[in-house]
Give the backbone structure.
Amino acid sequence: MKGSERKRGILSRADRAYLRGEADLASTQSERNARARIRDRIHDSVLDFELLVECLSERDRELVFEKRFENADGTEAFDALVSAVSFLYRAIEDTGLEFETVLHEGINVAEAKDDRAATVRLDVTFQSLTAEQLLRKLESGETLSLTEIAYLHESDEVRADELARYFRDAEATSEIDDGRIQSKVTNF
């Protein structure tokens, strides 16, 4: 179901339209109010997760994730969950907490429901991205990750038609990685 058709979640339909740049707000004050409302909802929603972990029945959780997400179109469920983790990863960085510590505790809170604990190890290695470096990878026939494709798509250094050419050529020769490509990345 497209974002504009969904019912209100953390964001209302108007909030989604505003964030996509599809809504013209009447004044600067209206825009400030919309942004403040979104921030308040995000804050309150994150606080609600403790209640969901402690009080939502296992059956209700399964009905959301096994039934509704299982029936989602294409990669909608995968993209939504990746985006949720991505958002929380960045949010945890903003708080000054260490992601690995929060991840460890979160996994162990979940596993405690099954009377077990987990050892969590996370190894994150960073590398810088440049359009020039990624275009060289494409030219040499290497596949790109979703992150790399998204980076090129958002880059001002590469025109959309130039980038699309690489994927047309790769698709014709079946060289493109079959990984999940979000619709916003592939809609050139």
